[in-house]
Amino acid sequence: MSLYHPSDDFVARSNVSGGDARRDLVARAEAAPEKFWSELAESELHWFRKWDAVLDESGAPFYKWFVGGRTNMSYNCVDRHCDTWRKNRAAIVWEGEPGDQRTLTYQELLRCVKRFASVLREQGFRAGDRAIIYMPMVPELPVAMLACARLGIVHSVVFAGFSAEALKTRILDLDASLVITADGGWRRGKVVPLKDAVDEALHDCPGVRSVIVYRRTGSDVAMHDGRDAWWHDLDRGASEDCPAEELDAEHPLYVLYTSGTTGKPKGIVHSTGGYQLQVSMAMRWVFDIRDEDTYWCAADVGWVTGHSYIVYGPLLVGTTTVMYEGAPDFPEPDRFWRIADKYRVNVFYTSPTAIRAFIRFGDRYPDRHDLSSLRLLGSVGEPINPSAWEWYHRVIGGGRCPIVDTWWQTETGSIMISPLPGATPLKPGSATFPLPGVAADVVDMRGNSVEPGGEGFLVVRKPWPSMFRTLWGDPVRFQEVYWSQIPGTYFVGDAARKDKDGYFWVLGRVDDVMNVSGHRMSTAELESMLVRHEAVAEAAVIGVPDELTGQAVVAFVTPIQGHEPTDELAAELREWTAQQIGKFARPKQIRFSDALPKTRSGKIMRRLLREIVTTQTVTGDITTLEDLSVIDRLAAQQGSD
Ligand code: WTA
User: Fold this and answer.
1) Is 579 exposed, middle or buried (0-12, 13-18, 19+ CB in 10 A)?
2) Which among 479, 473, 465 is positioned nearest to 249, based on CA atoms?
3) In what order do the strands lie in the sheet with 294-297?
4) Residue 640 · residue 590 · CB < 8 Å
5) Which of 159, 297, 409 is the pocket-test mutation for ligand 1 (most atoms within 8 Å of CB)?
6) What is the CA angle 522-525-527, rounded to 5?
7) Mutate to test the pocket of ligand 1, among 157, 297, 379, 407 (most ligand atoms within 8 A of CB)
8) Of ligand 1's atoms, which has the minimum distance to the CA of residue 410?
9) pLDDT at 638
10) CB crowding 192-218: b at 16 or more within 10 Å, else e
């Protein structure tokens, strides 16, 4: 396989310039990790008080970083830049789906953040309180996050594609007292009615005492007296005197829910000090950020990629972050390229699913635009297949832009395995090597490193600054799921291979978590949602390979007696999924069956279902199957798309 090398000019100008520079960083981090991170923490960030210890391992796996240090994310993202030439630099360049535009300089962003933070303070919210943010991709979304961070209010952003039901679960789990939302947002020319969903969710959430509503679409919404207020009304009298709280380095910054292997989403808890540091370093090492750059991560702030690489990372390093509200194919499939051209974007970061969708639309859409400002491309969320990589490199990158294939997770907080673009020769489809200071490895069941060329489990052997600290309200599950498989080692949940040159190839999940369009979904969560429907006796959900979305959801459903397995019922179950979780989780296929393949102990054999869907037969071991005839009946059936 041919290697892709960066141009000499790219190498000469990059932050980590050449392979030796990278190896030197890696060696220094390995030799003295605490010294390595503490020197960076000092040069990268503002601290109101310096830490007493870099790393406290005494309560492992509940590690603590920069113990005793005091800092503030909002201060580091905004205030400190306003004392420099960056004051009038664009912090956020935003475009709404209908085509409206706004630019906020760092100074303007600071004023917005202070005003909104003082509104929250006036309402009596304090450090440690929890806020849910359920907003469209408008600049007020980062403003709300930064205002919470300023006061130490723990925020949890709920992706605006989630339903009222999913929103309710998160509000209750977090015991939030504040919800920040909007009347709606634009998606493919239609209004997504966010406030209506909040009202529905809040029927069962008595702990929420305040709802702040940003007016985005102008649509009619109900406002509840004594609970709801318009953002613009509150802003009118807001004070700009609202200094950033001097928070403990370990103060929780946010909780982000993600799917695990059970029916209940996990609240991933991130802290302040270590998270700031590693996210900031990734901006420099991986995205190679330069002062003149315009940077665009085309994810949604509702997922971790948006937290770390639309909001916090870019603002920490004082770059210009582009934000786009709507769908990539609205009004036409060239919207991304139009935006990249218009704002002269230099660094662009998206997902393999998006890239594959663009390949389908055809080259004529990028060909309409001048993409010569791009110098670096990124990919995240799922393995990128080499042919999509090649297309991205050739058609979007004009053959001149390195691609950083970044592997990481909601749990890791920041990028863990990735090329450094001016230092790592690329192999399409490989995330290449762990970043400096990241002790990732591929191991067997007992935790021994696999031989070059071997496959195994991806793990991280040592704590890293941006690691999640616990699961909200469930420290036992935190220990069990992540730290007990191979004691003392972080168990990622992905399979990987290391080739003879030491390159990492991430192969996908080893547990019952699916990855659909780069979004994590749990088979158990979808199954328990389906069996809550009155017509469903039993359900088994699997992920099958899909050309466009990486994986697609197929649900096997056994109806309760008296309910017919009709197309209408399939449609109803899809609608039910949209209501219970969100439209994005709707199964691609629903297959009805009077029984499911189970072991004698009653465990559904998903492996067999997967085989039936992909090959229409079963070849693997079926000796543990309780009823052999189930297989033939399932294989004979056609799915309903
Ligand atoms: C997968 C998204 C291969 C992986 C940042 C991981 C990847 C899960 C890559 C985390 C990549 C993410 N190559 N697989 N570059 N990036 N993954 O929490 O299975 O939404 O465990 O975080 O996505 O998904 P999450």
Assistant:
1) middle
2) 465
3) 101-105, 90-95, 320-324, 294-297, 347-350, 376-380, 403-406
4) yes
5) 409
6) 110
7) 407
8) 18
9) 56
10) bbbbbbbbbbbeebeebebbbbbbbbe
> Is the CB of residue 376 less than 8 Å from the CB of residue 293?
no
For residue 353, the CA-to-ligand 1 centroid distance in Å is 12
Sign of the CA dihedral with 196 first, then 197, 200, and 206 last: negative
Spatial distance between the Cα atoms of 239 and 242, rounded to a whole number of angstroms: 7
d(CA 462, CA 30): 10
Give residue 550 CA to ligand 1 midpoint distance, Å. Answer: 12
User: Which residue has its alpha carbon closest to ligand 1 atom 12?
Assistant: 381
Record the tokens describing residue 472, joined without a space.
């909200």
Say what the pLDDT of residue 453 is: 92
Measured from the Cα of 493, ligand 1's closest atom is 21
Tokens of 111: 């004023």
pTM: 0.93
Which mean pLDDT values do the consecutive 10-residue runs of the chain (641 residues) have?
Answer: 92 98 98 98 98 98 98 98 98 98 98 98 98 98 99 98 96 98 97 98 97 98 97 97 98 94 89 98 98 97 97 98 97 97 98 93 96 98 93 98 98 98 97 98 94 94 98 97 92 95 93 88 89 91 91 93 94 96 93 85 81 81 76 71 49
| DSSP 3-state of 120 | helix
Q: What is the best residue among 507, 520, 525 to mutate for testing ligand 1's pocket, by most ligand atoms within 8 Å of CB? A: 520
Cβ neighbourhood burial of 616 (10 Å; 0-12, 13-18, 19+)? exposed
Tokens of 181: 């939302």
User: For a substitution probing ligand 1, which of 259, 312, 458, 515 has the most ligand atoms within 8 Å of its CB?
Assistant: 515
Ligand 1 pocket, Cβ-based, cut-off 6 angstroms: 258, 303-305, 380-383, 405-410, 431, 493-494, 506, 508-509, 515, 520
CA of 407 to the centre of ligand 1 (A): 6
258 - beta bridge partners? 266
Q: How far is the CA of 149 from the centre of ligand 1 (A)?
A: 26
Going by their DSSP bridges, the two strands 519-522 and 536-546 should be labelled as: unpaired
Q: Interior CA angle at 202 toward 199 and 207, to 5°?
A: 145
Three-class DSSP category at 1: coil
